[in-house]
Design brief:
Blueprint lengths: L5 E5 L3 H12 L4 E5 L2 H10 L4 E5 L7 H10 L8 E5 L3 H10 L4 E4 L4 H14 L1 H8 L15 E5 L3 H13 L3 E5 L2 H11 L3 E5 L7 H10 L8 E5 L4 H9 L4 E4 L4 H26 L3 H52 L4 E6 L4 E4 L1 H7 L3 H4 L14 H12 L4 E8 L5 E12 L5 E10 L1 H19 L4 H55 L8 H31 L7 E5 H15 L7 E7 L5 E5 H17 L4 E9 L3 E8 L6 H4 L23 H11 L3 E7 L3 E9 L3 H19 L3 E10 L1 H4 L4 H18 L6 E5 L3 E7 L3 H21 L6 E10 L6 H8 L8
Parallel strand pairs: 1-2, 1-3, 3-4, 4-5, 6-7, 6-8, 8-9, 9-10, 17-19
Antiparallel strand pairs: 11-12, 11-15, 13-14, 14-15, 16-18, 19-20, 20-22, 21-22, 23-25, 23-26, 24-25
Keywords: Coiled coil, Phosphoprotein
Protein name: histidine kinase
Catalytic activity: ATP + protein L-histidine = ADP + protein N-phospho-L-histidine
Length: 858
């Protein structure tokens, strides 16, 4: 056909070039082919095409520089350019748009999708071609997009507001609507320069809205950018079939979405400028151009309509079957336990699966374009590889073993099956290798051979070895029994300390206290003094037992912190109140003081352990202070909480100060009373503070007094949640197990929230959180509340599939509660799950999956 649209393909792979050319020729396009960037530029000068398909990876000059040269020339910049790449969209988009490309697509996409993209771009470039045929050149000028009207339709209010704010910052006039009806009205009122439609809506879908808008001739020229939930092929095809000029996934970075908007608006600007120039032509010229334009457009649409009517029904059915099969095959290859390598007919690698990357150490980008000879170990002969190549080029399957080399130089064994891949015409287009790592098997075989040789040569010693093994086994059994006895003795000792000593001591103390208080009769002064000393020594013995048990647990790493939020001020006040009630300080003439930087100072710590630290420090101060005061001060600093226990006691010498936290070391500070205890109290305090991630220090001056200071880090809720995810992942990695984190969000339906008061609403939120918490049966499962409407659950030894089962159980219990309370229409519960290692190998990857914005706020 003399008036067919002309397409230039610049591609150095003969196989792919031929396949694409055949597909386009079957659609009545005229095709020109170039094998390099230089050849392509020469062909453009000699015979400008209507559209250019440009590969990124080219010899000498690569695709991006070629695209820049085309777009920098005013004679050729109107020609649409599609970039072909093997990379994913997010990685190619910025470079492609910066180079001036009108679109880009993955080379592995179906040919039907590539042809649809070409059709869409050629429709947009009709005006540009007519303008070029008249040899009218628009002088280059700075294009300003500020003030352009953009209509944005989405019923996801959060996403709508985020995108609107970003576009307003860039200087656009942004109008937003949440329904299809509102969109139709706004288009009629404002005539926007660009419309952004969300593909999936609760009422009319974006595709329906797009079709309705383009039914009216006055709005046909308004470009539409479709916002798809993901970048799936099915959603892209639906968008183009509805008449969208382009589409982009909501999951893409906002910067990439804005680049797409700029690209569309610049093309629209260029087309409008050409229309302005066209209106300046004479009447005869205009009639001729309009006639040619109408004739060409009618002809093209007639051809396309005829082709589409023939293929549409068949394509829809075949596409659904093919895409489902493609998804299954893709998942099978991606998740396969064997390596899969696909090469072109020249042996250049075009695809490798994740198992290949894991085994060889080569990144995906490093492997692409390489010849498998880079894996040679040098242990196979040239004849070996020659026979392999002759077999597969003859169309046969080759099977055999390779001794190959990884990127780090390590050798490994593979059993491979290499087969040719043919197209519908029976021509070989690719080779596929499926290879199993048999390194361990080969090692085992070698080990078996060596073992067999050793067994054969040492058969005479078998009986002797057997006797020795029996004797060793007997000794091992006896030793094991001894160890079991020791373990039982140790457990019995701990049990005796915790029960046999504590229980009688409690009874003795109670009896002595009753005698001392005169409950059992009057006692004289001498008896009272004796009983007082006895009571003090009983308490001292109890403290010694507790200290010994605490230090043994700390050194064995068996102390677990049960962190929670609580008010440290109230803890200190309660401790001081207890000492005042016991009259320990006033009896010595010592004043107990407190000093706080605020009425409440919240800390995230183990309440019982912190009480133990404070009580121990106050006891220590009372022991060595004869007069003056003891002050407990708590200060809430910017990133920490600082607690000080100061006294006006005898102080500590400089020599003793450096050993103050060494266990079993006792310091009198000065000759006199106070030398008693285990020497473990301060050691335990410091260890407990450090277990919290804090520090403990001491300042003292002999004869003046002592100040013990400990600092606790102040955690934000985000730090607490990140630490929970990180520690769960580390434990899973150590145990070679899975780990999952689940975020549950409870949203109220806006139209229903006003029907209940705030207290009732919060009560229901708490009840829903409790239901989720109680579903977690294992002690290792944890739940952390985030405000009133979110709950983070960590699930050790749980993969993604198992986490979904837990989610289903939680949803079932919550729905039972909501149905019972008639609240199903009031609350909406959402879940997000991130699993290690399937969703990422770093805690940051899991965090970003749970909180896509990076922080706690959505």
């Amino acid at each position: 056909m003399s008036e067919n649209r002309k397409i230039l393909i610049i591609e150095d792979s003969p196989t792919y070039q031929r396949a694409l050319a055949d597909e386009l020729v079957s659609r009545s396009y005229d095709i020109i082919c170039a094998n390099s960037g230089e050849e392509g530029l020469e062909l453009i000068k000699e015979n400008p095409p209507d559209l250019i398909v440009l590969d990124v990876m080219l010899p000498q000059i690569q695709g991006y520089p070629v695209c820049r040269l085309i777009k920098s020339n005013p004679h050729f910049r109107h020609i649409p350019v599609i970039i072909l790449t093997l990379l994913e969209g997010n990685r190619i988009m910025p470079e492609a748009i910066e180079a001036g490309a009108d679109s880009f697509i993955n080379k592995q996409a179906p040919m039907s999708l590539i042809v649809r993209r070409i059709d869409a771009l050629l429709k947009m470039s009709i005006a540009a071609k007519l303008f070029w045929q008249e040899e009218v050149i628009v002088e280059e000028e700075e294009i300003s997009l500020a003030g352009k009207k953009i209509l944005l339709m989405d019923d996801d209010l959060t996403y709508l507001q985020i995108l609107k704010r970003e576009l307003v910052i860039d200087g656009y006039q942004v109008m937003d609507v949440t329904t299809g009806e509102q969109c139709f009205e706004k288009v009629k009122e404002e005539m926007p320069d660009l419309i952004l439609l969300s593909l999936e809506m609760s009422d009319l879908e974006g595709t329906d809205v797009c079709r309705e808008i383009h039914k009216a001739k006055r709005f046909y020229s308004v470009p539409v950018l479709m916002l798809t939930p993901t970048d799936s092929r099915e959603q892209i095809i639906r968008s183009f079939e509805a008449g969208a000029n382009d589409c982009v996934a909501k999951t893409d970075n906002l910067k990439l979405i804005k680049l797409r908007i700029i690209s569309i608006l610049k093309r629209k600007y260029f087309e409008e400028e050409m229309r302005k120039v066209r209106t300046q032509l004479s009447g005869a010229e205009m009639k001729m151009i309009i006639a040619n334009s109408e004739k060409e457009i009618q002809k093209q649409f007639a051809q396309q309509l005829e082709e589409k009517n023939k293929l549409l029904e068949k394509e829809i059915a075949e596409r659904q079957v093919a895409e489902e099969l493609s998804r299954k095959l893709s998942r099978a290859v991606e998740q396969s336990p064997v390596t899969v390598v696909v090469t072109d007919t020249e042996g250049r690698i075009e695809y490798v699966n994740p198992k290949f990357i894991q085994l060889t150490g080569y990144a995906y980008e490093e492997a692409l374009g390489q010849n498998p000879r880079v894996f040679k170990s040098g242990e196979h002969s040239a004849l070996f590889y020659k026979e392999l190549w002759e077999t597969i080029t003859a169309g046969k399957e080759w099977r055999g073993e390779f001794h190959n080399k990884k990127k780090n130089g390590e050798l490994y064994w593979e059993f491979a099956s290499i087969s040719p891949v043919r197209n519908l015409n029976g021509e070989i287009t690719h080779y596929i290798a499926v290879k199993e790592d048999i390194t361990e098997r080969k090692r085992a075989e070698e080990e078996l051979k060596r073992s067999k040789t050793e067994l054969e040569t040492q058969a005479w010693g078998l009986q002797k070895a057997n006797d020795s093994i029996k004797m060793l086994y007997k000794q091992l059994e006896e030793r094991n029994k001894e160890l079991q006895k020791l373990d039982i003795l140790k457990s019995e000792f701990v049990s005796t300390v915790s029960h046999e000593l504590r229980t009688p001591m409690a009874i003795i103390r109670e009896g002595v206290s009753q005698v001392l208080e005169g409950i059992l009769g009057d006692i004289n002064v001498e008896q009272k003094e004796f009983l007082t000393i006895s009571l003090e020594n009983i308490d001292r013995l109890g403290r010694i037992i507790n200290d010994l048990l605490d230090i043994s647990k700390l050194e064995a790493g068996r102390v677990e912190l049960r962190r929670e939020w609580f008010d440290l001020v109230s803890i200190v006040n309660d401790a001081i109140k207890n000492y005042k009630l016991m009259d320990k300080a006033s009896a010595k003439g010592v004043e107990l003081r407190t000093k706080f930087s605020g009425e409440r100072i919240e800390v995230y710590a183990d309440r019982d352990k912190l009480i133990q630290i404070i009580m121990n420090l106050i006891n220590n101060a009372l022991k060595f202070t004869e007069e003056g005061f003891i002050e407990v001060a708590v200060e809430d600093c910017e990133d920490r909480v600082e607690c000080k226990v100061s006294d006006t006691g005898r102080g500590i010498s400089e020599d003793d100060l450096q050993h103050i936290f060494v266990k079993f070391r006792q310091f009198d500070r000065k000759d006199g009373p106070g030398k008693q205890g285990t020497g473990l109290g301060l050691t335990i305090c410091k260890a407990l503070v450090e277990l919290h991630g804090g520090t403990m220090t001491v300042d003292s001056k002999a004869g003046v007094g002592t100040t013990f200071r400990f600092i606790l880090p102040e955690y934000s809720m985000e730090e607490i949640l990140r630490e929970a995810i990180s520690s769960g992942m580390k434990e899973a990695e150590k145990l070679e197990e899975a780990f999952s984190a689940m975020l549950m969000s409870i949203d109220s339906v806006e139209t229903k929230k006003h029907l209940m008061d705030e207290a009732t609403y919060n009560e229901h939120l708490q009840q829903i959180g409790k239901i989720a918490y109680h579903v977690l049966r294992r002690s290792s499962d944890k739940a952390i509340g985030i405000g009133g409407c979110k709950l983070l659950m960590t699930l050790p030894v749980t993969n993604g599939r198992q986490a979904l089962i837990v989610q289903a159980r939680i949803e079932e219990k919550i729905n039972e509660y909501l149905e019972k309370e008639a609240l199903l229409e009031h609350f909406k519960v959402r879940f997000s799950i991130a699993s290690y290692p399937s969703d990422g190998s770093s805690s940051e990857a899991l965090w970003n999956r749970l909180f896509p914005g990076g922080g706690l706020a959505e």
